[in-house]
Amino acid sequence: MTHKKLAAMLLIALIALSVCGAVIYQSGSVAASPTNATGALNTWSRAPINPAFAQYLRNRAAGNATTTVSGHEESLVPSTVDFSTITGQSVRASAVPLVGYPSSYDLRGLGKVSPVENQGSSSACWAFAAYGSLESYLLPGTQWSFSENNMKNLAGFSVPDGCNGGGSPQMATAYLARWSGPVTTTSDPWSLSCTDTSSGSVQQHVQNVLFLPYRASSTDNGNIKWALQTYGGVYVALYLDTSSSYYNPTTAAYYYSGSTQPNHAATIVGWDDSYAASNFAKAPPGPGAFVVKNSWGTSWGKSGYFYVSYYDTQFATNYQPPAVFTSEPTTNYDTNYQYDPLGWVTSVGSDGGGNTAWGANVFTATSNQQLSAVSFYAGSVNTQYAIYVYTDPTSGPIGGTGYTGPAGTITMPGYHTIPLTTSVPLTAGHKFSVAIKITAPGNNQPIPVESTLQGYSSATAQPGQSYLSATGTSWTDATQIDPTMNICIKAFTTPWASLGGQIPAGTSPAASSWGSGRLDLFVQGMDGALYHKSYSGSTWSGWENLGGKLTSSPAATSPGTGAIDVFVRGTNGALYQRSWTGSWSSWAPLGGQIPAGTSPAASSWGSGHLDLFVQGMNGALYHKSYSGSTWSGWENLGGKLTSSPAATSPGNGQIDVFVRGGDKGLWQRTL
What Å distances lie between residue 514 and 356, 602, 649, CA to CA? Predict the structure, then answer.
């Protein structure tokens, strides 16, 4: 017997043990009931692996898991999580139109479908289907072409045959949720090679991915219709065989009534309840079909699209959950604290704890930031959660200073980001934790975790990172249960804190300075004069016209001794300054040149030098000093600015940056 066959047989045996029931995790000589941080005994079990995944590994070992259809190699990795328990459950009752769904619906007519692409002979249909959903979600506002090549090559999973072994929405979600993508196709073009050296920048942050329940019958289409109308394209798995008994090339209509598991993924873009059964090679029991965008190029089907009967027995009914991918601008959060780059592999629960348990992660802040959101996976319909945050925790993940976060119910399974009601300030080098109580109806393993799984994931973990609790008071380090386990909880920060108030339309913030318990805001009015108002506590003063005329848009002001100093960039590129002490002084050139392509964001008068802050073309904050008659070089201070900076002023060893956000509110950040 070859070593390869022996390894495959051992792998199948391990998977078979997992399928037979819940497995108690053990680490070396650690007992099946490990002692937690406070000495109480507790047992933890993980959910049985999805039987389809076990079958997939057996098929792989036998060498028959990949099929070739119309010149395309097709293979999918079934979900490691068993979603069969939520089959047929409705998650959209409150969103259903009172008049019901229209008889037909097509995203193409709404400008919400990106162009058809071609996967070639690869088995990367899953990546094309995932991006078909995400690109649709972002339309018609912005048309993106994201790199499937980057996703298939850098997903990071240890599935058989690597990037040629197929994928799943779980794998796509993990890659996107850790902010490895999406990058553009231009930065990483399509290639059949598994080698990838792309340095493309991430264009969006994926913070929410919905996993729809499987269809229970040919008429159980409400969840998909709701998702199409609410978000856009939907990732779907199906068994695709274009032989004449299933596929009618004249009408591009497909109907499969067998039991072979799915081998292909595509993107649903519409439906037609009246699509005639006579359009199919073999007539299904009734009319109705989904409109599906394929990834075999425009020369196949109807310009790359085809129709799948509602009665198809392997369409969105098992193997992989239908999924909806959404995203947000990269300016939403600046740091992603995480221990689960491979995402949700399995779930764990406390024996005797029913469908409720607690999970927590402890992180170390890399800078002074504002913790503004957390994310986790919901495994059931109507998953309930309660979020708690601790700074400087003293007992595992709890203790120190506690903050009560939001609590609620998530109707849709999947990956979800929950904004905090109030941001929590973090201090560089200090620990903080996020603890979440999760109740998953019908699921006695409610805590999603990342861990090593043969044939799928090679996870790592360290003590002191992740914790589990049955009560929220006594905690077990996850590595005592499994040395490779981490809880799937991420934490997101933003450097910006809202100061409230509204900046009137028609004015642009010029500068602000922090005074004695107040904020002084200076703007250039439509008449070119300088206006001032103060923000103290929670209210704004009225606008005060300081008179004078500005020869250029103000760059910054800083308070002097009874003076207001305004700095502007002249048309010659040099920096000019004038002071207001009841009347305006003349403009005085300060010398030096401000490089073209940058706009002065703010400046402050220090000890014999001027500190200038500008927003670069890449959105980061840059700094340089002017002392005497020379400029220092530009220093990249990092971070991303959500809006053009309004002003900075020196505090006690700090720089305060104020910007006007998209909501016209004032936001502050300390560097």
Answer: 47, 13, 7
Q: How far is CA 107 from the centre of its chain?
A: 24
Asked if 488 and 450 count as a contact pair (C-beta separation under 8 A), the reply is yes
Predicted TM-score (pTM) of the model is: 0.74
Question: What is the pLDDT averaged over residues 654-658?
Answer: 41
What span, in angstroms and rounded, lies between the C-alpha atoms of 328 and 309?
A: 34
- Go through the domains of the chain in sequence order and give each one's CATH number: 6-49+346-494 (2.60.120), 70-191+202-325 (3.90.70.10), 497-670 (2.110.10)
- Would you state the pLDDT for residue 43? 87
End-to-end CA distance of the chain: 63
> What's the one-letter identity of residue 176?
L
* CA-based R_g, the chain, Å: 29
- The answer to whether 510 and 566 have CB atoms below 8 angstroms apart is yes
Yes or no: say if 269 and 228 are a contact pair by the CB < 8 Å rule.
yes
For residue 104, what are the CA distances in angstroms to 140, 270, 290, 386?
20, 7, 9, 40
Average pLDDT value for residue range 527-533: 51
How are beta strands 305-309 and 253-254 bridged, if at all?
parallel
Question: Is residue 182 reached through a cis peptide bond, with omega within 30 degrees of 0 on the bond before it?
Answer: yes
Q: SS3 of 665, please?
A: coil
DSSP class per residue in 612-652 = EEEE-TTS-EEEEEEETTEE---EEEES--SS-EEEEEE-S
The answer to whether 377 and 414 have CB atoms below 8 angstroms apart is: yes
CA 326/CA 210 separation, integer angstroms: 8
> CB neighbours of 512 closer than 8 A, spacing ≥ 6?
519, 520, 521, 522, 557, 646, 647, 649, 658
DSSP state of 641: -
Please name the residue that has the structure tokens 């044939």.
455
Structure tokens at 17: 């043990």
Distances (CA, A) of 331 to 312, 325, 503, 620: 42, 18, 21, 11
Closest among 568, 671, 553 to 610, alpha carbons compared? 568
- What length is written for the chain? 671
Name the band, by pLDDT with cuts 50, 70 and 90, for residue 352.
confident
pLDDT tens track for 615-633: 443 445 555 554 544 556 5
Tokens found for residue 174: 């993990």
Alpha helix ranges (H) inside 417-568: none
Residue with tokens 């506590």: 537
Cα dihedral 252→258→262→266 (10° resolution): 20
In one-letter notation, the amino acid at residue 448 is P
Quote the tokens at residue 642. Answer: 């959500």
DSSP letter for each residue of 528-545: S-EEEEEEETTEEPPPEE
Q: What average pLDDT does the segment 579-584 reach?
A: 53
List, as one string, the DSSP characters of 405-431. Answer: EEEEEE-S-EEEEEEEEEEEEE-TT-E
Q: What phi and psi values does residue 472 have, to the nearest 5 degrees? A: 90, 0
For residues 295-314, average pLDDT: 98
Between CA 43 and CA 668 the distance in angstroms is 46
Residues 63-116 pLDDT 10s: 776 677 877 777 899 999 999 999 999 875 554 555 679 999 999 999 999 999
